[in-house]
Amino acid sequence: MKDGIFSFLDFTKPGIDRPEPSKPFIRFWYRYAMRFFHLIRLNLIFFAVSLPFYVSVATLYNAFVVGKGFKNIALLAALVQYALQSIPGAVKGALVVLSVVAWGSANAGLQYVAGRYAQGEHAWPWYDFFAAAKANWKQGLLFGLIDATVVFL
């Protein structure tokens, strides 16, 4: 397929060599621009996985603030409290425990993929996020408990 009408479909040729900028500041913005939509997708995955943690924090915030007599309740906490009032307390407690476990693993997956992007290496946001979360669940559990302790105290 060297010559002919379909020679533009020859994918065995070397591609365009685009070296990265040599200065670190410019290289950072170059990599950021190249991976911008991948980072948005990665943050949406992280938000979806850690949503139970945010809901439990908002519910506990609402419970403690209203219990102490404060009148300024965050809108998110009030909406979450209204949405979760029909769920039994045992299910809410199980969701909080599950969210603490998932929070640390989600952080591990996020840091793995973001670190690969920062080093200029390739990473699949969906697959590598969950593979890193699964591989580092023990460390994620430990740091998720530490994070939850700091947040809830």
**Percent strand:** under 5%
Largest β-sheet summary: none
Q: What's the total count of β strands?
A: 0
Q: What is the helical fraction, as a range of percent?
A: over 70%
Span between termini: 68 Å
What's the shape?
elongated
Features:
mainly alpha, elongated, 0% strand, 6 helices, 153 residues
Describe the protein's architecture and organization.
By secondary structure, the chain is mostly helical. Helices cover 71% and strands 0% of the residues. It has helices at 24-34, 36-67, 75-83, 89-118, 125-135, 137-152. Helix 2 crosses helix 3 and helix 4 crosses helix 5 (125-135). The chain is elongated and about 75 Å long. It starts with 23 loop residues before the first helix and ends with a helix.
Short characterization:
With 153 residues, the protein is an all-alpha fold. The chain is built from 6 helices and no strands.
Q: Can you lay out the helices and strands and say which pair or pack?
A:
Elements: H1 24-34, H2 36-67, H3 75-83, H4 89-118, H5 125-135, H6 137-152
